[in-house]
Structure formats: structure tokens, C-alpha cells
Design brief:
There is one protein chain. By secondary structure, this protein is α/β, with parallel strands linked by helices. It folds into two domains: 2-57, no CATH class; 78-294, Aspartate Aminotransferase, domain 2. It has helices at 32-40, 46-57, 78-90, 101-111, 128-136, 180-189, 241-251, 281-292, 294-310; strands at 2-4, 19-22, 94-98, 119-123, 140-144, 165-168, 193-197, 205-206, 209-210, 217-221, 234-238, 318-320, 336-338. Helix 5 (128-136) links the parallel strand 4 (119-123) and strand 5.
């Protein structure tokens, strides 16, 4: 039952509300059963699950949780907390939590100006998503050879630059780090954007500086298969406000991120057709904890790798992978290449 009053002016515009109070209370949309479904994924025993259910049912859940980033009645949502932790940890001005590392790359490339008729220089070794996100942005990936570190060879980049090139996308592969100082130098010389793919090396550094902060945009995969993450998620960081706005434009359906969604464009090119790469609150609740633990996780990997390397013998025809920064790599892979005694480099 509700009590109605005359609606002299729309309640949305500050006038009287159509209803002033409500009687009765419905069940929350999301309640105990949904909570128990999440608890089951943690592998608790049936006996423990029964205790958790009893405790949950004893609580008054009110309207139930709101598991989206927008409009949540909290001082800080888990998505916002994850973005704050990323800004603080990496020392950047802007961070966007996204549904995947691929979504972060797609958003970053569009923000960097990739589109029809443009090219992006990508490494010849790396995960499919780097080049795929260029294609998804309507650009063309141009593959650059790698050196013995398995990362983009900075000496091979300039020969690939054309008037259509808009960005270089170094990928930090398998816990290693690319030679960012040399790559950034080439990019600045030719006025190109640098989009770092840090999906496999979150927590790595090059010359004491976080990878992901050397370029104009850093993209991370925050997923179950990576150093940081528990399910599927992504992260984009940058120091440039306009790049942050452009990336949000793609990730947030064009303009949902704006202070006033339906306001006219504030500058040319602000509004364009985007898609939806939003991260859910449930993913962010796990990922924010994982991100906070990242330094100690990486330190543990590095310590174990040092122990392994100290116990290995040296063989003439087996060469360890070249490391651009032995102290900065994450350290979850030990790789070697075999060179026969009669091996000679190609001319």
C-alpha cells in the first residue's frame, strides 16, 4: 500500500514525490542463496557451508547488496578501491578497472588514436590479444622482431615506422621486461604513443621504474592465470587526463563515465560510440586484495627463481634467456635456448 500525493512537478526535478512511504518489505533481489553460491566456490566443506548459511540467514540483509560499480550506497565501491590502490601503488594519476586485459588494450589503443588507416608496431612474440586489440580498433598490427630476451628488439623498430604508424606496443612477456628506455626513445623521436602490454609481468620494473608507467598507457591482465587476479579482470593506467577520458569512452559505452552524462560534448572528439568493459564488484573484491599483495607475491617468485638458478650447472651449448633487467623481472619462468656448437647467426 502506498500513499499518493498530487505530482505538481516531477520528483526528478525537485518537486513532490509520487509516493512518500511504503508498507511491507520484499525479499532482497540478491540474498543468502547468492552469497552461498559464492562461498561454495571457495571449496568449504558441507559442514562449514552449513555454518556459513546459518550465520548469513541470521543477518538482516536489508535490500541486499548492489553488485555494480554505479550507484552503490557505499563510501567506496570495490571497483573504486581497486582503482585507488592502482593509482597509489604505481604512482599514476588515473586508473580504470576493466573486465579483461584485452578490454584494457582495446580501450588504450582507441585512446591512443588507433583507427582506420593506422598501424601499431607489436612484438613478434606475445599473446594474441595485443595484435587482436589493434585489429579490433580498426588498425593494422606490424610485427617487430624480438631479440634473445624474447622482447621487442629496439634496433628493429625504426625500419617499420611509416606515416601510418601511431603507436608502439611493447609486450612484457612471461615475467620479463622489455628494454623500455630504448623503445620509448624511438617513440619520442617519431612522436608515437607507447601502449605497454603488462599482462604477463605485473609487478616488474625496468631500471627501478614500474613497467606499465614507462609508456603513455599501461595495460594489465588481472586474471586467474596471472601474478595478480582471481578470475577475469583488467587494469589500465595513465598520467594523461585526455587519454583516461578517451579510454573511458570506449570502456563505458561512450559517455557513461562523464560528470554529466547527457551534457553536450565539452571538446571535439569527446563523444564516440563505445562498448562495455566494466568490471563487476565481485571480481574487484578479489582483485583489490590481490593487487595489494602484489609486491610480496613478486618478491616470493624472485626469491624462488634465484634459488633455482643458483643450483643449475653451466653448459656450453645452452644459453639462458637474456634479461633486460635481472632485478626487475617478475621471475616465474626459467628459459634457455639451445645453440649447437656449429651455430652461426644469420646475416
Amino acid at each position: 500500500m502506498t500513499e499518493r500525493k498530487p505530482d505538481r512537478q516531477s520528483g526528478l526535478l525537485g518537486g513532490l514525490q509520487a509516493t512518500t512511504r511504503a508498507q511491507g518489505r520484499g525479499e532482497p533481489k540478491i540474498g543468502v542463496d547468492e552469497f552461498m553460491s559464492v562461498a561454495e566456490r571457495f571449496g568449504f566443506s558441507p559442514a562449514t557451508l552449513a555454518k556459513i548459511r546459518a550465520a548469513a540467514e541470521a543477518e538482516d540483509m536489508g535490500e541486499g547488496p548492489f553488485l555494480a560499480n554505479y550507484y552503490a550506497k557505499l563510501p567506496e565501491t570495490k571497483v573504486q578501491a581497486m582503482e585507488r590502490v592502482a593509482r597509489e601503488m604505481f604512482g599514476v594519476k588515473y586508473a580504470i578497472a576493466l573486465s579483461s586485459g584485452t578490454g584494457a588494450l582495446h580501450s588504450a589503443f582507441v585512446a591512443a588514436g588507433v583507427g582506420p588507416g593506422t598501424e601499431v608496431i607489436c612484438p613478434a612474440i606475445g599473446f594474441f590479444a595485443t595484435a587482436a586489440a589493434v585489429v579490433q580498433s580498426n588498425g593494422v598490427p606490424i610485427f617487430c622482431d624480438v631479440d634473445e630476451s624474447l622482447h621487442m628488439d629496439p634496433t628493429k623498430i625504426e625500419a617499420l615506422i611509416t606515416p601510418r604508424t601511431v603507436a608502439i606496443a611493447p609486450t612484457h612477456v612471461m615475467g620479463g621486461v622489455a628494454n623500455m628506455e630504448a623503445i620509448v626513445a624511438v617513440a619520442r623521436k617519431h612522436n608515437l604513443r607507447v601502449v605497454e602490454d603488462v599482462a604477463q609481468s605485473c609487478g616488474g620494473t625496468y631500471k627501478g621504474k614500474w613497467v606499465g608507467t614507462w609508456g603513455d598507457l599501461g595495460c594489465f591482465s588481472i586474471s586467474a592465470y596471472k601474478i595478480v587476479g582471481g578470475g577475469e579482470g583488467g587494469l589500465l593506467i595513465t598520467d594523461e587526463e585526455r587519454l583516461w577520458e578517451r579510454a573511458n569512452g570506449l570502456a563505458e559505452c561512450g559517455g557513461l563515465w562523464r560528470p554529466v552524462r547527457f551534457a553536450p560534448p565539452r571538446y571535439e572528439g569527446e563523444l564516440y560510440c563505445g562498448t562495455n568493459y566494466r568490471l563487476s564488484e565481485l571480481e574487484a573484491a578479489v582483485d583489490v586484495v590481490q593487487l595489494q599483495r602484489m609486491p610480496e607475491t613478486v618478491a616470493r617468485f624472485r626469491a624462488v627463481k634465484r634459488q633455482v638458478l643458483e643450483g643449475l650447472k653451466t653448459y656450453r651449448e645452452i644459453t639462458p634467456q637474456l634479461l633486460n633487467d635481472p632485478d626487475g623481472e617478475v621471475g616465474y619462468r626459467v628459459r634457455f635456448s639451445r645453440k649447437p656448437s656449429n651455430w652461426e647467426p644469420r646475416s
